[in-house]
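This week, look over our next protein:
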Amino acid sequence: MPLQIVRNDITKMNVDAIVNAANTSLLGGGGVDGCIHRAAGPELLEECRKLGGCKTGSAKMTKGYVLPCKYVIHAVGPRWRDGSHGERELLVSCYRTSLELAKGKKCETVAFPLISSGIYGYPKDQALRVAIDTICEFLLENEMTVYLVIFDKKAYRISGKLFEDLVEYIDDKYVDEHTDRYCERMRRQNAFRKSRFDFEAEVYTRMDESDAADMFPMAVPKAAKSLEDALKQLDESFSEMLLRKIDERGMTDAQCYRKANIDRKLFSKIRSNRLYKPSKPTAIAFAIALELSLDETKEMLGKAGFALSHSNKFDIIIEYFIENENYNIFEINEALFAFDQSLLGG
């Protein structure tokens, strides 16, 4: 997927470029900056000495040296004061400049830390929002895979209000403790249906065929079909429904798969194969991109062989966002990550 939130050590990311949360001197420091300099070796510091520093809100690029990446992009984020001194604009500029530098070097994969959220004191939930929004805006117009690397879960926070609302919603909807009783009830209902069908079939065999057909239509044997005839009766597939919905929304393919956080190559596979079976997160990602209602989302999931359940936290979180008409896939992924669930996209 184009944007992924991962827990990892950024110095171990095997990507084209990693972003360093640097200071204006570019000569190393604490936190992520110090870790990257130590992991890259002394040659990185030597190249940085020649760059003459960097302004806050901007970025400069060097080689990666012994790091597994080709390049290091040194971005200088703002120190947090009170939020009214241009901090957000400077942080947005950090991400945009870094992404443009990566694009200029034809990088296909880039890994970011959460810039300014450490010793620079930028509130973590706000720093995360800036990162997600800015990267998202870039990816809607560009082909690139971007990783937002979170080293420690404690360094990751969605807004307290959203977290609390989701916890309350999950508590209201979660029915895991009732699942066994529900399954038992369904088994009893299925057993009743089977016994009724057997009874009707027995009566049918003792009656005139036309009378029986009127009285017990479910018990009447259907004419055998060839496999070819049966296949012709297939319902609209997931791929066909997806392409139909894209046309109905007046979207282009690119607009849809980018909003869905889906890689272009994966979308091409789906478009070229009417029987393509996506993963559940991929199917939901397209429903979110198309801003489908909850009923439409369930229909699209059904085409792929899936359903939403109140015994699954992932499903409940998805339902929460759809019911609140929040179709920002990256914000949804923030919430899924916070609750240790699979992310949307493919």
